[in-house]
Write a structure and sequence with these properties.
Layout (H helix, E strand, L loop, with lengths): L3 E6 L4 H12 L3 E8 L15 E5 L17 E4 L5 H4 L2 H19 L7 E5 L11 H13 L6 E6 L3 E2 L8 H10 L5 E2 L5 H13 L7 E5 L2 E7 H8 L5
Parallel strand pairs: 1-2, 1-4, 2-3, 4-5, 5-6, 6-10, 7-8
Antiparallel strand pairs: 9-10
Helix pairs in contact: 3-4, 6-7
């Protein structure tokens, strides 16, 4: 299988920064684009940074972003926030869902075989009464309806092993429920996002425990925490 090009939206967050490093270090990706409001300090990157293309974009003016120009094989989206950081429920949904969906829509090139990989969250449900879970569920639903050849959604139980000063309330609650074995580390399992982007739904091994989710015609491949762990522990490079 030939090397692929990858675009990542949200590369300065805890998950995104680790996915970016995995993409750059992997021989399975020949070119990596980092587009966003903020960009990674290139001096902080190691192996593979010579194949990185960076561009500042305005999420309110995505028509001027040039997201389509790269004709990316795989679009990774790790952009997200929480209500407290955003300042209001409306601002949260704009960043967590509207910006995510609109970015993926803008990166979609008609007639080109492309894959989208989205880092969602445990409990994602478009009908949930919880704002955070509902936003993630609606985002999954909308992304799967954009016409990508393959849509893979990751639902980590909790983002652990990060350096954030603020822990999201939702993550704290899920940690207390799921315990130590249900965490999504920035060092190991995140590697599997890059793997899934390259392999695609059809290439995912049994260890990924992938399953179809969503409702027709907006269906997608779902990888939950146990599958992310299993995939990360399978040979790749």
């Amino acid at each position: 299988m030939s090397a692929k090009t990858a675009l990542i939206i949200g590369a300065t967050g805890q998950v995104g920064s680790n996915v970016l490093r995995e993409l750059l270090a992997s021989s399975h990706y020949s070119k990596v684009g980092e587009y966003g409001r903020r960009l990674t300090d290139i001096s902080s990157l190691g192996a593979g940074k010579e194949k990185l293309e960076q561009k500042n974009i305005d999420f309110e003016k995505l028509g001027e972003s040039g997201l389509k120009d790269g004709k990316w094989d795989v679009v990774f989206i790790t952009l997200g926030t929480n209500k407290k950081s955003a300042g209001s429920a409306e601002a949260f949904e704009k960043i967590d869902r509207t910006y995510v969906v609109n970015s993926a829509k803008e990166a979609r090139v008609e007639g080109l075989t492309q894959r989208v990989v989205y880092c969602s969250s445990i409990g994602a449900d478009p009908k949930s009464s919880v704002l955070y879970s509902r936003s993630k569920g609606l985002t999954e639903q909308e992304l799967s309806g954009l016409g990508y050849s393959d849509a893979i959604m990751y639902r980590p139980a909790v983002i652990a092993g990060t350096n954030r000063a603020e822990k999201r309330m939702t993550e704290t609650v899920f940690t207390s429920i799921t315990g130590v074995l249900s965490h999504f580390t920035s060092a190991v399992e995140i590697k599997s996002l890059a793997m899934a982007g390259f392999l695609g739904t059809e290439g995912l091994p049994a260890e990924a425990k992938a399953k179809k989710a969503g409702e027709a015609p907006r269906t997608f491949t779902l990888v939950e925490n146990a599958g992310a762990v299993g995939l990360a522990n399978t040979p790749w490079e």
